[in-house]
Design brief:
The complex is a heterodimer of chains A (163) and B (420). With 163 residues, chain A is an alpha/beta fold. Chain A has helices at residues 16-19, 30-34, 45-48, 69-76, 89-98, 106-111, 143-150, 154-162; strands at 2-9, 54-57, 81-84, 102-104, 117-121, 126-129, 134-137. In chain A, helix 7 crosses helix 8 (154-162). The longest helix of chain A has 10 residues, at 89-98. Chain B is of the alpha/beta class and 420 residues long. The chains are: A alpha/beta (163), B alpha/beta (420). The A-B interface holds A 60, 66, 68, 86, 88-90, 92-94, 96-98, 104, 139, 141-142, 144-145, 148, 153-155, 158-159, 161-163 and B 22-26, 45, 48-51, 139-140, 142-143, 145-146, 149-150, 154, 156, 192-193, 222, 224. Bound molecules: iron/sulfur cluster.
Chain lengths: 163, 420
Amino acid sequence: MKVKGRVFKYGDNVDTDVIIPARYLNTSDPQELAKHCMEDIDINFVKEVKQGDIIVADKNFGCGSSREHAPIAIKASGISCVIASTFARIFYRNAINIGLPILECEEAVKGIDAGDEVEIDFSTGTIKNITKNETYQAQAFPEFMQKIIESDGLIKYIQKDLV
Amino acid sequence: MGMTMTQKILAAHAGLEKVVAGQLIEANLDLVLGNDVTTPVAVKEFKKIGVDKVFDKKKVAIVPDHFTPNKDIKAAEQCKYIREFARDKEIENYFEVGEMGIEHALIPEKGLVVPGDVVIGADSHTCTYGALGAFSTGIGSTDMAAGMATGKAWFKVPSAIKFVLKGKMNKWVSGKDVILHIIGMIGVDGALYKSMEFVGEGISNLSMDDRFTIANMAIEAGAKNGIFPVDEKTIAYVKEHSTKEYKVYEADEDAEYDAVYEIDLSKIRPTVAFPHLPENTRTIDEVGDIKIDQVVIGSCTNGRMEDLRVAASILRGKKVAKGVRVIVFPGTQNIYLQALKEGLVADMVEAGAVFSTPTCGPCLGGHMGILAKGERAIATTNRNFVGRMGHPESEVYLASPAVAAASALTGKITNPENIA
Ligand code: SF4
């Protein structure tokens, strides 16, 4: 499975409160949440993001509360993958479980700038920077995790096997 | 390069010869746990899956402990919802009020976790069972739903930090002081994503109750799990509580660790974490003059027999300071009963404490002891975040049962060495 898009770039410790501020948590509707995604650090994000785009950030992405709303908002906004140097532990799990692909790759974070065009192959973990003509290597998703992502989350993934 | 204890357990449960830190694996589960707050959400997700059974009726545990005995109508509805689910799915380990306890005190007591197990729980303090040489970690409600349906969960294999303990704790120093000391040293994200492996000859001087307390608070350093090697004390505990088969895993000699710390247990002083983070620790000698309104003794961190024995030994024959409210809540019904038989309940009630049924109650500011604005509590619980026990402008100081009980007698944070 491959995705391709333009990059939005952020720094360290992007927390769940800026990904989706608590004042919007009175709903769990993905499209409603997506309307306010990242608005406290990047007011233009919602206006500019297109289906397939990619977020690249530095350390400890998704720290803070355990709200599943954060990866849901990012996914519903159209983002196809988040690449970061490291993720906060619960965000990492929640993202995979709702079917938002995420990759840890320090090298890519160093190499990629905002606005770069990037292509990712989840089966190999290869991240291609088309703008700069560079390639970075993240750990590939194991097969079952690719299946979770392809199934649009853990619940639908296991549904296929069980029902 | 060898594997850590945690890595060995995970490899075995994933059917792999070897795993390395950072690797993503899918592992078989020995137990899936939830409480009255997280299980309702998980049940809703479970129903979406569309299976009609849980993967194994013996390997799911549901413990309504946070807002029970039902605090209000909402809590009652939530408990009803999971009670009906448990009945419908014939879940064997559903524990009703009267047989329940705080989940992390109850699960080991019921023998549901043994060495070598892999356990997930929709509660962050699920890491407590590392005391038994099991891998156990907190997860979200979606994970719990999937775990109940499939008996599997995915994990990213953690790297580890090794804590080599040596020597023996002094009187009035306990497991709580050891873990507070460690969190003070490495910080609340000091072990982020990693295992905390506790090893060394000093382990043999720690009781099982001390080990449960230490493993319980691994999450307070950001860890994925905390784990102890299995020794005679572990085996004796398991034999007393469980008939399940267990397996002992040991770290390889050449296992790699991100960091190694040596800790001399004899040098640890009674330790207190100041508001509003468990890492804000000071030794009892540096505390100064801190007046308190409430004392809370209990929780999944310190609601076990040794905790109650220590607290009762300090309170026995004395009186709680005027104007201080002392609330004791034991971990389980068995602990409650044992405390009654040993006369500990009478000791504490005579001193002026109240004695509660097992519940999470005050620990999370749920019920049974909420703080008003500006009030201050000393508690043997595990979190002192803003508003944890009530009003956002109240304060919680974390300490051992000995320090909490000594403080109850004076109305300010007090060194037990000066009382007893
Ligand atoms: S006693 Fe406190 S920390 Fe333990 S499970 Fe209950 S609420 Fe959580």
